Amino acid sequence: MDPDPRYVPLTDKLAVRSYVSEKLAQKYLVPLIAAPVAFTRAAFDALPASFVMKANHGSSFVEVVRDKSQTSFERLQHLTEQWLQTDFYKVSRERHYSKIRPRIFFEQLLLDERGKLPPDYKVHCFRRGNAQPVMYISVISDRFGDTTRGDIFDVRWNRLDFVIGYYSRSEEPPGAPPNLAAILDTAKTLSEGFDYVRVDLYAPGDNIYFGELTFTPGAGVLPFVPDRIDYEWGRLLRE
To answer: Which Pfam families does the protein's record reference (predicted)?
Structure first.
């Protein structure tokens, strides 16, 4: 069975910006600095002092640059060449990625009031027909640091006693963001029309920014601990 044809433009991290703007508003998009056809010396020179470099056609193609003077055009050019030459379908066997034309783009670096990268709020949205979605929030803290943690919460911000993937839980669970209700409303809107999608958001200060839509997280093979949660979540797609 072929994947839903909507997956291609909505998984493309550049093309999906139009969908978010139409469903919500432009203010939910992380400001786009550039999306050059080719990464040249001139494109590098035009970048601001800090930014995030990404590729649109796969997972983990992210380079956070806090201080441009501490990197070089040659280093980033080598990285872009590696990314653009990667057929992510062959890496993960997620077929919708095979139809995305690889591009490099640059976004504004988001920081919280402490000058740190804000947590990722990954909202898993399960929906049957016109019913209200069942949602769980996976919070990834310090994603690019040395103490990355992953915690799962229900919509009332009760931490749940299981783990998805390879991040350890926090010793002390992070507090609920003050705009939790708005985060959930945003995820609800963006997930309309899909049985399942993970909506990734950032919420520094009073803002909410869109990260990505993921229809097949971890290519569907991330471990659940305990593994009964894998079965329980799977049932949400069938009931």
So the answer is: ATPgrasp_TupA
- For 176, which DSSP code? P
Predicted TM-score (pTM) of this structure: 0.95
**Residue 177: inside a domain:** yes
CA atoms in the 13 A half-sphere facing the CB of 97: 22
**φ and ψ at residue 217, rounded to 5 degrees:** -55, 135
Under 8 Å between Cβ of 52 and 106: yes
Give Dmax over CA atoms of the chain in angstroms: 54
- Torsion sign across C-alpha atoms 94, 163, 64, 201: positive
Rounded distance, CA 136 to CA 225, Å? Answer: 15
pLDDT single digits (tens) 89-137: 888 888 999 999 999 999 999 999 888 999 999 999 999 888 899 999 9
Domain-terminating residue out of 107, 141, 162: 107
Domain closes at, from 78, 107, 136: 107
Residue 230 sits at the vertex; the CA angle it makes with 91 and 55, to the nearest 5 degrees, is 30
In angstroms, rounded to a whole number, what is the distance separating the alpha carbons of residues 204 and 206?
Answer: 6
Range(s) of the domain holding residue 183: 120-236
The 10 Å Cβ neighbour count of residue 184 is 19
